Write the C-alpha coordinates for this entry.
Amino acid sequence: MATGDFDKLMRDGYRLMEEGEYSQALTKFDKALKTEPTNPAAYLAKADAGVLVPKVSQEEIIALYKKASDLDPENPFIFQSWGAFCMDIGLFNDAETCYNKAAEVDPENATYYYSEFGVEYYKRALVVYEQRLDEQTKGIIAKKALKYLLKSIDLDETSAKKLL
Protein backbone atom coordinates (compact mmCIF):
# COMPACT_ATOMS: atom_id res chain seq x y z
CA MET A 1 0.00 0.00 0.00
CA ALA A 2 1.10 3.54 -0.65
CA THR A 3 1.73 6.31 1.86
CA GLY A 4 -1.61 7.82 0.85
CA ASP A 5 -3.33 4.68 2.14
CA PHE A 6 -1.42 4.93 5.41
CA ASP A 7 -2.36 8.59 5.81
CA LYS A 8 -6.03 7.85 5.12
CA LEU A 9 -6.07 4.98 7.63
CA MET A 10 -4.48 7.23 10.25
CA ARG A 11 -6.93 10.09 9.57
CA ASP A 12 -9.84 7.65 9.74
CA GLY A 13 -8.50 6.24 13.01
CA TYR A 14 -8.15 9.68 14.59
CA ARG A 15 -11.66 10.61 13.44
CA LEU A 16 -13.05 7.43 14.97
CA MET A 17 -11.23 8.23 18.23
CA GLU A 18 -12.88 11.66 18.27
CA GLU A 19 -16.24 9.94 17.76
CA GLY A 20 -15.60 7.56 20.65
CA GLU A 21 -15.33 4.52 18.39
CA TYR A 22 -12.13 3.22 19.94
CA SER A 23 -12.34 -0.40 18.76
CA GLN A 24 -12.86 0.72 15.18
CA ALA A 25 -10.03 3.23 15.51
CA LEU A 26 -7.80 0.43 16.82
CA THR A 27 -8.59 -1.57 13.67
CA LYS A 28 -7.62 1.39 11.45
CA PHE A 29 -4.35 1.90 13.28
CA ASP A 30 -3.63 -1.83 13.07
CA LYS A 31 -4.16 -1.70 9.29
CA ALA A 32 -1.94 1.39 9.10
CA LEU A 33 0.80 -0.56 10.89
CA LYS A 34 0.53 -3.31 8.33
CA THR A 35 1.16 -0.76 5.58
CA GLU A 36 4.04 0.98 7.39
CA PRO A 37 5.34 -1.31 10.15
CA THR A 38 8.14 1.08 11.15
CA ASN A 39 6.03 4.20 11.57
CA PRO A 40 6.11 5.31 15.23
CA ALA A 41 2.96 7.45 14.87
CA ALA A 42 0.92 4.34 14.14
CA TYR A 43 2.26 2.54 17.23
CA LEU A 44 1.52 5.58 19.38
CA ALA A 45 -1.99 5.94 17.95
CA LYS A 46 -2.70 2.24 18.42
CA ALA A 47 -1.47 2.42 22.03
CA ASP A 48 -3.60 5.48 22.74
CA ALA A 49 -6.67 3.79 21.23
CA GLY A 50 -5.86 0.53 23.03
CA VAL A 51 -6.01 2.30 26.38
CA LEU A 52 -9.71 2.82 25.71
CA VAL A 53 -10.49 -0.71 24.51
CA PRO A 54 -10.97 -3.17 27.40
CA LYS A 55 -9.86 -6.23 25.40
CA VAL A 56 -6.37 -4.79 24.89
CA SER A 57 -4.06 -5.86 27.70
CA GLN A 58 -1.86 -3.49 29.65
CA GLU A 59 1.15 -5.47 28.50
CA GLU A 60 0.20 -5.00 24.84
CA ILE A 61 -0.28 -1.26 25.34
CA ILE A 62 3.11 -0.95 27.04
CA ALA A 63 4.71 -2.92 24.19
CA LEU A 64 3.16 -0.51 21.67
CA TYR A 65 4.48 2.53 23.52
CA LYS A 66 7.90 0.88 23.79
CA LYS A 67 7.97 0.14 20.06
CA ALA A 68 6.95 3.73 19.25
CA SER A 69 9.71 5.05 21.53
CA ASP A 70 12.28 2.68 20.02
CA LEU A 71 11.39 3.95 16.55
CA ASP A 72 11.31 7.62 17.58
CA PRO A 73 13.34 8.08 20.77
CA GLU A 74 13.33 11.88 20.43
CA ASN A 75 9.53 12.26 20.47
CA PRO A 76 8.47 13.60 23.89
CA PHE A 77 4.77 13.01 23.20
CA ILE A 78 5.35 9.26 23.10
CA PHE A 79 6.95 9.38 26.54
CA GLN A 80 4.29 11.72 27.93
CA SER A 81 1.48 9.49 26.69
CA TRP A 82 3.24 6.36 27.93
CA GLY A 83 3.86 8.03 31.28
CA ALA A 84 0.20 9.02 31.61
CA PHE A 85 -0.83 5.43 30.90
CA CYS A 86 1.62 4.09 33.49
CA MET A 87 0.27 6.62 35.97
CA ASP A 88 -3.30 5.45 35.32
CA ILE A 89 -2.44 1.82 36.02
CA GLY A 90 -0.31 2.57 39.08
CA LEU A 91 3.14 1.96 37.59
CA PHE A 92 4.53 5.08 39.21
CA ASN A 93 8.24 4.35 38.74
CA ASP A 94 7.69 3.70 35.04
CA ALA A 95 5.59 6.86 34.79
CA GLU A 96 8.37 8.85 36.44
CA THR A 97 10.92 7.43 34.00
CA CYS A 98 8.71 8.33 31.03
CA TYR A 99 8.05 11.89 32.17
CA ASN A 100 11.75 12.41 32.87
CA LYS A 101 12.59 11.10 29.40
CA ALA A 102 10.05 13.49 27.84
CA ALA A 103 11.71 16.36 29.73
CA GLU A 104 15.14 15.18 28.64
CA VAL A 105 14.30 15.07 24.92
CA ASP A 106 12.23 18.29 25.08
CA PRO A 107 14.03 20.51 27.60
CA GLU A 108 12.21 23.59 26.32
CA ASN A 109 8.95 22.13 27.73
CA ALA A 110 10.42 20.20 30.66
CA THR A 111 8.51 22.36 33.12
CA TYR A 112 5.22 21.00 31.79
CA TYR A 113 6.29 17.36 32.03
CA TYR A 114 7.56 17.82 35.58
CA SER A 115 4.43 19.63 36.72
CA GLU A 116 2.15 17.08 35.05
CA PHE A 117 3.98 14.25 36.76
CA GLY A 118 3.87 16.00 40.14
CA VAL A 119 0.16 16.74 40.05
CA GLU A 120 -0.93 13.43 38.53
CA TYR A 121 1.32 11.40 40.83
CA TYR A 122 -0.11 13.12 43.90
CA LYS A 123 -3.72 12.57 42.81
CA ARG A 124 -3.30 8.99 41.59
CA ALA A 125 -0.98 7.65 44.30
CA LEU A 126 -3.42 8.73 47.01
CA VAL A 127 -6.12 6.66 45.29
CA VAL A 128 -3.92 3.62 44.63
CA TYR A 129 -2.56 3.50 48.18
CA GLU A 130 -5.86 4.45 49.82
CA GLN A 131 -6.20 1.14 51.70
CA ARG A 132 -2.87 1.59 53.45
CA LEU A 133 -2.69 5.37 53.54
CA ASP A 134 -1.23 6.46 56.84
CA GLU A 135 0.42 9.82 57.55
CA GLN A 136 3.88 8.52 56.67
CA THR A 137 2.75 7.25 53.26
CA LYS A 138 0.88 10.49 52.62
CA GLY A 139 4.07 12.37 53.43
CA ILE A 140 6.16 10.26 51.07
CA ILE A 141 3.67 10.84 48.25
CA ALA A 142 3.45 14.58 48.93
CA LYS A 143 7.24 14.93 49.10
CA LYS A 144 7.78 13.25 45.75
CA ALA A 145 5.00 15.29 44.12
CA LEU A 146 6.41 18.48 45.61
CA LYS A 147 9.90 17.62 44.36
CA TYR A 148 8.58 17.58 40.79
CA LEU A 149 6.43 20.67 41.23
CA LEU A 150 9.46 22.56 42.53
CA LYS A 151 11.55 21.18 39.69
CA SER A 152 8.94 22.48 37.25
CA ILE A 153 9.66 26.03 38.43
CA ASP A 154 13.40 25.41 38.65
CA LEU A 155 13.62 25.36 42.44
CA ASP A 156 15.30 22.88 44.72
CA GLU A 157 14.18 22.11 48.26
CA THR A 158 16.67 24.50 49.89
CA SER A 159 15.68 27.42 47.66
CA ALA A 160 12.01 26.77 48.27
CA LYS A 161 12.56 26.76 52.06
CA LYS A 162 14.34 30.12 51.83
CA LEU A 163 11.43 31.57 49.90
CA LEU A 164 8.92 30.30 52.44
Observations:
- The radius of gyration is 18 Å.
- The chain has two domains: 1-72, 73-164.
- The first helix runs from residue 3 to 18.
- The chain has a mean pLDDT of 95.
